[in-house]
Design brief:
37% of the residues lie in helices and 20% in strands. It is α/β, with parallel strands linked by helices and 443 residues long. It folds into 2 domains: 3-206, Acetylglutamate kinase-like (Carbamate kinase); 288-442, VC0802-like. It has a 7-stranded mixed beta sheet, with helices on both faces. A 6-stranded antiparallel beta sheet has the order 11-12-10-13-15-14. Strands 4-5 form a two-stranded antiparallel sheet. A hairpin with an 8-residue loop joins strand 8 (258-262) and strand 9. Helix 13 packs across helix 14. The two termini are 26 Å apart. The protein binds aspartic acid. Residues 9, 37-38, 48, 50, 113, 167-168, 182-186 line the site of aspartic acid (ASP).
Length: 443
């Protein structure tokens, strides 16, 4: 059994968090390869090291005194070192870093958060430190070279049975450090899981996996125990985010499970994410509910449109011209709506409408603002008649007006559009209708 264990920023934010990590690693010998993020916030007033490093770079660029900021960063690492009485001589490296600051690339500078956190963690766990610069191979376009990474790992495995590696960065063929997008340590863990053919990729955070609904809307929502990559994609697109979206890609085809766990509550079951769930116990029809407010619908009506050709294409090309991504296009016989995110068209919606009027010449065009979209997602919904009926009836009986309906062809989600003001109410109604009634079936 081999597990890749990745710890997020809050799991490594202080000496006491380091102690929890050690407990977790030592409780299971399969946890041999550890990836860490940079130390995150200790409390609400504190700052993430990575944010401070980005800020430090901005200070240097704009010739503002960056030394106090650098001291703050240094302090955070030294505090952890002293509290845990570690021997790793990071002071010398920090001094060298300070001297090189003005000439360092942004990528190299911000990668140092993960670098020093991993150095300290390696010392504390008694594992060797392996630098991501020497392992994670990135192409100039930012994509990952898995073959090269696997080759490099083979050499390292010949020497080490355990290691701690910094997340978030790798290097390009010229040896320069390249960082991933924010939250990228999740991707590092996933790359290692793929290249080392791990049985499980454990992603330790500060939440016990995914909840079936937003706890600010539904009181004590249930935990999602198992979810497919596809379902997760639908839910995270709508706002539920715990894991970096791209962390799925390296391991998707291999069906390596990602287990989301809580460093502060290791006893909680967490959430397991997989490509396909075998022997899927149908514990609940729905897996989760998520949504977002503030969408905008441009409703277009044209007599006999059903016989006209090209109306939708011409309308969409206007949105394309303004570089606006279209979310949904619900349609009737002689009308259709184009739904987009309000923030995408805030500055130019009236120009877009004017241009549609000119090019498409519809009989009427109407702008409806303040629409919320809610996705009810569940792999067990597909091919189960009655699910949407139940959902619409529940909303209708509670007086929530549904403005639009969409369903993906894979039938794993039903999206409804409601008015912003009904958003929380609708989520709560759907949740209670599907979850509490089913609670006797749920493990
Ligand atoms: N430290 C980086 C960030 O804050 C990467 C990570 O935490 O995964 O975005």
């Amino acid at each position: 059994m081999l597990k890749i264990t990745k710890f997020g920023g809050s799991s490594v934010a202080s000496a006491s968090q380091f102690q929890k990590v050690k407990g977790i690693i030592e409780s299971d010998p399969a946890r041999r390869f550890v990836v860490v993020s940079a130390a995150g916030r200790k409390d609400a007033k504190d700052n993430k090291i990575t944010d401070l490093l980005y800020l430090c770079h901005a200070h240097i660029e704009y010739h503002v005194d960056y030394v106090p900021l650098f001291r703050m960063i240094e302090e955070r690492f030294l505090e952890i070192k002293q509290e845990l009485q570690l021997a790793t001589p990071i002071e010398g490296e920090l001094r060298q870093l300070e001297e090189r600051l003005p000439e360092l690339s942004l990528d190299e500078l911000v990668s140092r958060g993960e670098y020093f956190t991993a150095k300290l963690m390696a010392d504390y766990l008694g594992f060797p430190f392996v630098d991501a610069r020497d392992v994670i191979s990135m192409r100039y376009d930012g994509s990952f070279n898995y073959e090269d990474t696997s080759e490099r790992l083979k050499t390292i495995l010949a020497r080490h049975q355990h290691f701690v590696m910094p997340g978030f960065y790798g290097s390009t063929p010229d040896g320069h450090i390249r960082v991933m997008t924010r939250g990228g340590s999740d991707i590092t863990g996933s790359i290692l899981a793929r290249c080392l053919n791990a049985d499980v990729y454990e992603n330790w955070t500060d939440v016990s996996g995914f909840l079936m609904a937003d706890p600010r809307i539904v009181k004590n929502p249930k935990n999602i125990q198992r979810i497919t990559y596809e379902e997760l994609r639908e839910l995270s697109y709508m706002g539920a985010s715990v894991l970096h979206e791209d962390a799925i890609f390296p391991i998707r085809k291999r069906n390596i499970p990602i287990h989301i766990l809580n460093t502060n509550r290791p006893q909680d079951p967490g959430t397991i994410i997989m490509d396909a769930i075998e022997n899927d116990p149908v514990d609940s029809l729905i897996t989760g509910i998520a949504g977002k407010k503030d969408f905008v619908a441009v409703e277009i009506y044209q007599k006999h449109m059903s016989n006209a050709v090209g109306v939708i294409r011409k309308t969409l090309s206007v949105f394309e011209k303004y570089n606006v991504s279209v979310e949904h296009i619900p349609s009737g016989i002689d009308s259709f709506s184009v739904i987009v995110q309000g923030s995408d068209v805030r500055s130019n919606i009236y120009e877009i409408i004017a241009e549609i009027k000119e090019t498409v010449k519809p009989d009427s065009i109407r702008l409806v603002e303040g629409i919320a979209l809610i996705a009810t997602v569940g792999r067990n919904m597909s091919a189960r008649p009655g699910t949407s009926g139940r959902l619409f009836a529940a909303l209708g009986n509670s007086g929530v007006n549904i403005r639009m309906i969409a369903q993906g062809s894979d039938e794993i989600n039903i999206i409804v559009g409601v008015e912003n003001k009904d958003f929380e109410k609708a989520i709560s109604i759907i949740y209670h209708n599907f979850i509490q009634e089913d609670s006797h079936e749920t493990a």
